[in-house]
Amino acid sequence: MKLTSAALALLIGCTGLPGPRSDRPGSLHRRAATESWHALEDPSDADTLPSGPLTLEQALDIARARNPDLQIAEQRIRQAEEGRREVAATLLPTLSVDTGYVRADAPSVYLFKTIDARRLRPGTSFNRPGTFENFEAGVTARYNLFNGGQDRLAGEIAQADHELSQFDRSAVMNALLANVILSYFDVQVAEAIAEATGATTETVRAQLRETEVKWREGRVLKSDVLSLEVRLAGAEEQRIRAENARRLAAASLANLLGFEPSVAIDLSGDEWPAIEVPPVYEDGLAEALLNRPELQQARLRIDRANLALAASRRAYLPRVDLEARAYWDDPDFELSTTRTNWFAGIALSWDIFQGGRRAASARRTEALLEEMQAGDRRQVLAIQLEVKRAYLSLEEARARVAVTEASVAQAEETLTLVRTQYEGGTATVTRYLETELAWTQAKVRRSHALFDLRKAQAEVARALGHFSDASDMK
Question: At what angle do helices 150-216 and 68-89 cross, to 10 degrees?
Fold first, then answer.
């Protein structure tokens, strides 16, 4: 028993297998929580951000390097690569080494072990050999000659899995870069709104101070002061909301870049060139059907299901294996070449009946194939809808830009006229505040429209699969 335990310990040490763990579930949970907390406290975060304001191109580069979703997709590619190597290894012969210790008094065991050790003494009583012991060590080589082509099909399936993981990374990349662009624009429009509401608040505050002076001098009514105070409270509320929206948009962008939400990110605000997309829906749809990684994945899943169906049908064929073994038997564990034993042979095995397992596996694979075909049709319809929705949104965004440009020009002209009337005493403060509010809202709507146009262009590009390549935006 001691020898067996020592041999087991030696085997575990040689194979690199981990030993038993005594961690309790509670300690594992606490350690996982601690490690997760330390993972958030990454001292390299500050070094990753550029020293100056962050451009959109820099944001895309950081997202490629740090986003966890993309890192997960890359690790899946690694897993698929190792899966290919694992399948390729099944095509090579296997070599194993074994050793064992026997202590017994069974006549049959005594006979064969003694003969293999070349130590069978003449006149031995096989009925009562007495207690004996034996050590055996050997080397065995095995090689599969035929298994119905299942190894080849397994290699093709592994290759399909590898390609699927690459398409999965492309899909993640396409969605990630589009979301970074959209989030970057969200931060910019939130900053523009916060700036506009802040300017409005300062304007109302200055007007309130001036009106209070006029009221003390008796030139305006108390109601004018009260109206401005109410207006200032409303403007302050809008400013707070706009500032909170700006912080939330910045936190969302930081999250996409792989940072914790509290990391301060200063945007450069540089103009980003418009993303070129086909002008009409029909051309865009043709490009999407060619480039979208999700559709390529769906087609590849059909091919993989066909390979799996062929492999399940090959399971009915026999298996032919070549095996060769050299071994030594000796009670004193003296592995002498004069007592070497060996044998080599070819074995054919054919499972005639397995209780219907192979038939059930084939039917399950056929159902999987039909599912993949239906999934392909569903993916085509989904992409058509995404592209159509993106082009409609782009058309709407262009129209909104034209409308808001005209509304801002009209609001500015009206504000100039009402300001002159108010300063001349022919317009009330309420009229002036309403006009100033309309002007501010027109500017906010224009900012929304301009950034919505950029976001709509990015959405069309995402729907067409423009961002699926890592070098798409450079």
Answer: 180
